[in-house]
């Protein structure tokens, strides 16, 4: 099991407010910042260009190399040349968009295998918003947030389910908490992660970093874990 950190981020990838968190993830690792905006591919070229631009600016702030892995569909995700770009990464980052599309695109592909191999070799892996959801085993289709009986995410972190943008999400999608709890497997923790906030560590011991809090959620339960505190997630899902 890799000891390299995983970061589950509520929102704010590549923005100045998250620079120090991203710096801590890549510090002491290869200065190759691998970025996949795959979750935004359904939004079109303009959205992808925006993510790539934001990623470039953050890489410049950090003084590291930006490596864009431009995966837009499953055909791309099976491309050996794109998968090879991930080798030697210090940090691999999955940014926001559509969580179900991201997970369905990467699952059981050469690119996902390369990400797992890089992590096992010592690269940090981060996912923000849709990326955070996809790294867990729950990556719902955001229009209905139906929770199927079997996992839909990539399962790098299989003992948690994530609601990103938690400080705003309940206002946007009032049923998100109910649907996230529906059929939640025993031994799995549901976490709300506020914007500009990250849960860093894994797979079981984590630290809350950033501007706001992470929330442990359940039926009639809401426990706040502010920045600077630690959180232990279940040892089996």
Write the layout of secondary structure elements.
Blueprint lengths: L5 E4 L9 H8 L5 E5 L8 H18 L2 E4 L5 H4 L2 H5 L6 E4 L4 H8 L3 H11 L3 E5 L1 H6 L24 E4 L2 H7 L3 H6 L7 E5 L3 E5 L3 E6 L2 E6 L2 E6 L3 E3 L5
Parallel strand pairs: 1-5, 2-3, 2-4, 4-5, 6-7
Antiparallel strand pairs: 1-8, 7-10, 8-9, 9-12, 10-11
Biggest beta-sheet profile: 8 strands, mixed
Distance between the termini: 16 Å
Radius of gyration from the alpha-carbon trace, in angstroms = 16 Å
Helix content: 25-40%
| Assembly of the depicted chains | single chain
Weakly predicted, low-confidence segments: none
Give the spatial strand order of the biggest sheet. 3-2-4-5-1-8-9-12
Structural class: alpha/beta
Question: How many DSSP helices?
Answer: 9
Strand coverage percent:
15-25%
What is the β-strand count?
Answer: 12
Describe this structure in words.
With 237 residues, this protein is an alpha/beta fold. It has 9 helices and 12 strands. Helix content is 31%, strand content 24%. The strands form 2 sheets. Strands 3-2-4-5-1-8-9-12 form an 8-stranded mixed β-sheet. Strands 6-7-10-11 form a 4-stranded mixed β-sheet. The model has no long low-confidence stretch (mean pLDDT 91).
């Amino acid at each position: 099991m890799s000891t390299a950190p995983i970061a589950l981020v509520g929102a704010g990838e590549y923005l100045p407010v998250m620079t120090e968190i991203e710096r801590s993830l890549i510090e002491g690792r290869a200065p190759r910042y691998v970025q996949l905006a795959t979750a935004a591919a359904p939004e079109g070229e303009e959205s992808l260009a925006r993510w790539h631009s934001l990623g470039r600016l953050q890489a410049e702030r950090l003084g590291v190399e930006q490596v864009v892995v431009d995966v837009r569909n499953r055909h791309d995700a099976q491309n050996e040349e794109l998968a090879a770009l991930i080798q030697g990464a210090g940090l691999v980052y999955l940014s926001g968009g559509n969580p179900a599309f991201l997970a369905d695109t990467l699952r059981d592909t050469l690119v996902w295998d390369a990400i797992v191999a890089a992590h096992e070799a010592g690269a940090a892996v981060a996912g923000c918003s849709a990326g955070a959801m996809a790294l867990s085993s729950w990556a719902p289709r955001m229009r209905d947030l139906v929770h199927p009986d079997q996992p839909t995410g990539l399962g790098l972190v299989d003992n948690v389910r994530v609601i990103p943008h938690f400080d705003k999400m309940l206002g946007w999608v009032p049923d998100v908490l109910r649907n996230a709890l529906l059929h939640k497997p025993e031994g799995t923790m549901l976490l709300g992660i506020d914007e500009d906030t990250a849960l860093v560590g894994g797979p079981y011991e984590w630290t809350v970093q950033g501007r706001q809090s992470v929330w442990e959620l359940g039926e009639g339960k809401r426990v706040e874990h502010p920045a600077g505190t630690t959180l232990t997630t279940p040892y089996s899902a």
